[in-house]
Each structure stands twice: as C-alpha cells, then as structure tokens.
Amino acid sequence: MSDSPSFLERKDVKPSFKRYAIDAFGAMAQGLFASLLIGTIFSTLGDLTGIELLGQIGGFAKAVAGPAMAVSIGAALAAPPLVLYSLAAVGYAANEAGGAGGPLAVFVIAIVAAELGKLVSKETKVDILVTPGVTVGIGCALAVAVAPWIGAAASSLGGLVMWATDLQPFLMGVVVSVLVGAALTLPISSAAICAALGLTGLAGGAALAGCCAQMVGYAAASFADNGWAGVVSQGLGTSMLQVPNIFKKPATWVPALVASAVTGPVATVVFGLQQNGAAIASGMGTCGLVGPIGLYSGWIADGITPGAREWLGMALVCVVIPAVVAWAVAFFMRRSGIINEGDMRIE
C-alpha cells in the first residue's frame, strides 16, 4: 500500500482538477480547432468558391477531429510516445460513438486511457504490445460502452433547444441563444447538435447569435488580457480556449453569457434573423466567419437579395452588440473586483 503513491508519482499519474479540467481541456480545445473547426472553414470556402481542393482539405481535417483531440490531451498529460500514438484510435472511437457529445466523450475517455497507458508503459519487456494494447483496448472498449451515453446526455441539450423553438420569439431567442452559445464554449459540439436537429430558420438565427456572442464577446471582454491575438484566436477561432479560465473562475463567463442573452432576442424579435444555410452554420458562430457566411448563403438559397436591413442585422447581431455588451459587463466586473487582471488570459 505504501508503494502506491511512489509508483503513481514515478508514472506521473497525479490526478488533480488543474491537470484534467484546465491543462487537458485547454489542450483539447486546440486539438478541436486544428481539426474540426479549421476543416469546416476550408469546407465552407470550398463551397463558396467552387474550388474542390478546399473542400477535400476540409473533409480530411474534420475526419481526424477525434484523434486530434485525444492526442492533444495525451500531450498535456505528458503521455509517453507509445501511449500518445495509441490515443489516436481511442479518440476516433470516442468521437464517433459519442455523436453530438463526441468532444465530451473524447475528453473523458482519453484521460482515462492515457493515465492507464502511462501506468503500464515500459513496465514489461514486451512494451510494444502491452502499452498500446492497454491504451487502445481499454480506451476503445470504454468508447463503445460509455460514449453513447455521454452523447445522449449532450444531445438532450438539443431536445431542450427544440422545445425552446416552440416558445414565443423573445423568450426563445434568450433560451436558444444562451444554451447553444454555452454548448459552443463547452466540450459539446454545438455545430453537431445544430446539424443533428436541422436547426435553421428563426431558431437557427438565435443559435447563431448566441455562438457569435460567445466568441466575439470573449474576444472583447478579454482584450485587456489577450490583445489582438486574442481577438483573432477567439473571435475567429473558438471561445473554448477560455474553458480553463471558466473552471478557475466561473465569473469570467458572465460577460459572454449576458451578451448571448441580449443578442438572441435582438435576432429573433427585432430583425427576424433566419439562418437558412447549412444547419451546422447555426452552431459555428464567427469561427472562420462560417456562421455569417451560412446566413448569407441562406438568403441566396431563399431567393432573398440582402438589403440594408439584412446587412445591418448581421453586423449588429454577429459582431457589434456582443462586443459592446460583453466589454461593458467585463469593464464593470473589473471595476468591482469580480474579475481581475489575467483572469481571462489564454495560453
């Protein structure tokens, strides 16, 4: 019994909130961006320009989202090379079996597989068989057994979104915008949820508003900590980069959430903004401008020639209002000492 702590320390298996919720999750966000999100950007550009190569590049990148996230997590946990490489299969299995909750399934299962793989790494003379056998075997078995349940839990959020679409536009705008926007920042695929539900129309507009509010809102609210680099990485990349900071101080999420609550009803009630492009665009926000591009492509598909009202609605809902609201809320929270310098800094 007394040997256990020293063994775990020797294998660098040190469970902690920081290591899993902050370090591993922060790395996973980067893996997600380097695969699914950048792939979606390429695919969208391919659709708009008709350049087949861009679409192919996008397809390749999106196909490896699971492995990219799992390997990123393994790197954050300092997994030995053989464990790290084995996590590619685990990530693929968890992401596929998890459905809309794929990223969340990868997060949980990759951590377990990586830590178990580290425990057996280089402990036998047949390490080339044992380490990948344990990592891939247990990881993929967990993916088959557990990932669908994780995916179902994540998809239940989609059911709530569908319920919200039956409400009056004002309340629906708040509910859908906040929930889908929150899913975009959390380890749940908001884009996959929107695609699975076929979330377009007025509800799609509210979802888009919420996602833009998270990304642009965080870019504006954290400008003091991250500057223009943060504007690009969050405003055009992903607000998921802020999750480690949310875990450390949940109050840092308030400015973006308030922005989502404001922009949703503005989209549904004031402008009647309908996102009728590809449903996945409803859950992409301003990532590579996929959301606004989806809005525009929906107008064209519906035979609508966008005029001043449409362009004004897009600009205000997707960029101006979330930036102003989130920045103002963050300003007052900093003045009140609720948020301090460095609380929103991203690595």
Structure report:
This protein has helices spanning 3-10, 17-49, 52-63, 65-76, 81-98, 102-120, 127-165, 169-185, 190-197, 201-221, 223-235, 243-248, 254-270, 290-301, 308-335. It contains 15 helices and no strands. Helix 10 runs antiparallel to helix 11 (223-235), helix 10 (201-221) packs antiparallel against helix 13 and helix 10 (201-221) crosses helix 15 (308-335). It has 2 domains: 3-153, no CATH class; 167-335, no CATH class. The protein is 76% helix and 0% strand. By secondary structure, it is mainly α.
Share of residues in strands: under 5%
Shape designation: globular
Q: In angstroms, what separates the terminal alpha carbons?
A: 38 Å
Topology as a string of helices (H) and strands (E): HHHHHHHHHHHHHHH
The total of helices stands at 15
Number of domains: 2
Helix vs. strand class: mainly alpha
Task: Determine the fraction of residues in helical runs and give it as a percent range.
Answer: over 70%
What is the alpha-carbon Rg in Å?
Answer: 21 Å
Mean pLDDT over the residues: 89
Number of strands: 0
The description of the largest β-sheet is: none
User: Any low-confidence stretches, pLDDT <50, length ≥5?
Assistant: none
Per-chain topology:
Layout lengths: L2 H8 L6 H33 L2 H12 L1 H12 L4 H18 L3 H19 L6 H39 L3 H17 L4 H8 L3 H21 L1 H13 L7 H6 L5 H17 L19 H12 L6 H28 L12
Helix pairs in contact: 2-3, 2-4, 4-5, 4-6, 5-6, 5-7, 6-7, 7-8, 7-9, 8-10, 8-13, 10-11, 10-13, 10-15, 13-15
